[in-house]
Specification:
By secondary structure, this protein is an alpha/beta fold. The protein is built from 11 helices and 8 strands. An 8-stranded parallel β-sheet has the order 6-5-4-3-2-1-8-7. The protein binds 6-hydroxymethylpterin-diphosphate. The site of 6-hydroxymethylpterin-diphosphate (HH2) has 21 residues, from strand 1 and strand 5.
């Protein structure tokens, strides 16, 4: 079932990108403390330059974050978040007016200002639980929203994550949050779901989710996967430096695509885009099955 799923047209969200293929979402953390690229793009000019480079490498969407959600991180104020993100949106759109920009925020105030500045979708790691006004902002803007599963909150989520059945619990949570969003007026066509790799999950939980991603795909919403450079990849490969985990990341991308995921949130755009191009060609090739 998952074999044909990826080979068929993958579900779209809000006509964000052209064509039926997988979409690479390039990560742009405008933060001093993100786990793998903290401080690299804190300066708006450096951030915009990196954004343009990721577009040139084949990113279909750019995901801008002004607050790190790495395990143990502290929140920043809304004002600080807006100050980090908005100038970068403006610079990117000056250079590339057609760029599709997502903002990684759970705050309705940040979302409102970012949408006014030209952002086209919201990436909410709290799945609309973090700010009671977020659902109506997304509804009014009629923009796509990514609903992410997270157990606990970033400060403490990796201390002792616990599930009876992680795949079922994550799938049920995402189904409930999608229902909540739809009841609040968000168009079902604007919902993207994400099992939240590393968000309150240990190695075993992440592996179970990646192995059984088709259960999440079968909810019927486009699925985003965000495994890029995460700690569990380092645990498997023994690559301690996060930015050197590109090969392990590519494996997660191809496996998730094979099971029907549509969006791949990654730091290393070119490596993942090329791997997806090859995976797509193989899965779509017109050959007889033996
Ligand atoms: N992971 C991170 C942040 N935002 N959004 C979605 N939808 N899915 C994810 O898996 C996800 C996410 C954490 O990674 P990163 O942005 O690289 O680091 P940090 O939170 O430290 O800025």
């Amino acid at each position: 079932m998952s074999r044909t799923r990826a080979a068929r047209n993958t579900p779209r969200a809000g006509n964000l990108t052209q064509g039926p293929g997988p979409v690479v979402v390039g990560i742009l953390n405008v933060t001093p403390d993100s786990f793998s690229d903290g401080g690299d793009f804190f300066d708006p000019e450096a951030a915009a330059e990196h954004a343009v480079a990721m577009l040139d490498e084949g990113a279909g969407i750019l995901d801008l974050g002004g607050e790190s959600t790495r395990p143990g991180s502290d929140p920043v104020s809304q004002e600080e978040e807006i100050q980090r993100v908005v100038p970068v949106i403006e610079r990117i759109l000056t250079e590339r007016p057609g760029a599709v920009i997502s903002v990684d925020t759970y705050r309705a105030g940040t979302a409102t200002v970012a949408l006014e500045a030209g952002a086209r979708l919201m990436n909410d790691v709290t799945a609309l639980r973090g700010d009671p006004r977020m659902a109506s902002v997304v509804k009014e803007a009629a923009c796509p929203v990514i609903l992410v599963h997270m157990q606990g909150e970033p400060k403490t989520m990796q201390e002792e994550p616990h599930y009876e059945d992680v795949v079922r619990e994550v799938r049920d949570f995402l189904a409930q949050r999608a229902e909540y969003a739809i009841a609040a007026g968000v168009g079902p066509e604007n919902i993207i779901v994400d099992p939240g790799i590393g968000f309150g999950k240990n190695l075993e939980h992440n592996l179970a989710l990646l192995q059984n991603l088709d259960y999440v795909v079968n909810l019927g919403f486009p699925v985003l996967i965000g495994a890029s450079r995460k700690r569990f990849i380092g645990e498997i490969t023994e690559v301690k430096v996060a930015r050197e985990r590109v090969f392990g990341t590519v494996a997660t991308t191809v496996l998730a695509y094979r099971q029907g995921a549509t969006f791949f949130r990654v730091h290393d755009v070119r490596a993942n885009r090329e791997a997806l191009a090859v995976a797509e060609a193989v899965l779509r090739a017109r050959t007889f099955r033996r």
